[in-house]
Amino acid sequence: MTDEEIQDVPRQQYTEKEKAEIFDSEFMPHINSMHNFAYRLTFDEDDANDLVQDTYLKAFRFIDSFQKGTNAKAWLFRILKNSFINDYRKKSKEPAKVDYQDVETYYNSDDVDRQITPDLRVESLQDMIGDEISNALNALDVDFRTVIILADLEEFKYDEMAKILDIPIGTVRSRLHRARNLLKEKLSEYANKMGYKNT
Q1: Integer Cα distance of 139 and 123 in angstroms
Q2: What is the C-alpha separation between 15 and 23, in angstroms, rounded?
Q3: How far apart are CA 134 and CA 137, in angstroms?
Q4: Are residues 146 and 78 in contact, defined by beta-carbon separation less than 8 angstroms?
Q5: How far apart are alpha carbons 152 and 145 in whole angstroms?
Q6: Which of 165, 159, 132, 134 is nearest to 147 (CA)?
Q7: Dist. CA 54–CA 61, nearest whole Å
Q8: At the top level of CATH, which class does the domain 122-199 belong to?
Q9: What digits encode the pLDDT tens for the residues 140-176?
């Protein structure tokens, strides 16, 4: 939900005490789900934290647009999804930035040789199956990744997903079907490489 969309919603007249109660009782219980969603969109802990913080700031700023007793989780997820898309668009238009001071500090440190040459045997065997599922999910286009996260990890219903993503239910269904097929294809390739055959 963009700032403009939030502002267009009929506003409630909450007291400061009611705002604090809504924030604590309806918004805060979803913070872990929000962080998981943000991390799966950004793949970066700091970016995920920033995205969640931005979402909660917007939620509090526009709390009068939230109707008490409705689905707070879906409302928050929609704000987060739109914040991510807006931020992603903004970053994609900016040139890549490199902090040469960080690069120089890294290469002058004593740990540089150890960090560049990890034990690949250990790394390749750690959590291989879980990593492969995560990698396959992360390799999907953001639209497909998002519907799988919302449906299969967060267990939203189709109508809730349609509101979060601002698309018709039919589009949710077709996108989810396509996303699951793409994920299945990616995991089938991995299974074949590992010697598993489809029966």
Answers
A1: 20
A2: 12
A3: 5
A4: no
A5: 10
A6: 165
A7: 10
A8: mainly alpha
A9: 999 999 999 999 989 999 999 999 999 999 999 999 9
How far is the CA of 183 from the CAs of 6, 9, 78, 124, 147, in angstroms?
33, 36, 24, 21, 12
Q: Residue 79 CB: number of other CB atoms within 10 A?
A: 25
Kindly report, residue by residue over 69-124, the tens digit of the pLDDT: 899 999 999 999 999 988 766 665 555 554 555 545 544 555 444 444 444 433 44
Return the structure tokens found at 135.
């990698």
* Residues near 106 by beta carbon (within 8 Å), at least 6 away in sequence: 112
| CATH topology identical between 1-94 and 122-199 | no
Mean of per-residue pLDDT scores for the chain: 80
Give the residue ranges of DSSP H helices in the chain. Answer: 3-8, 16-22, 31-42, 45-61, 72-93, 100-107, 112-116, 120-125, 128-139, 142-148, 158-165, 169-193
Q: At what angle do helices 45-61 and 72-93 cross, to 10 degrees?
A: 120
Task: Find all residues with CB under 8 Å of 196, minimum gap 6, and list them.
Answer: none
Domain range 1-94, its CATH number among 2.60.120.260, 1.10.1740.10, 1.10.10.10, 3.30.420.10: 1.10.1740.10
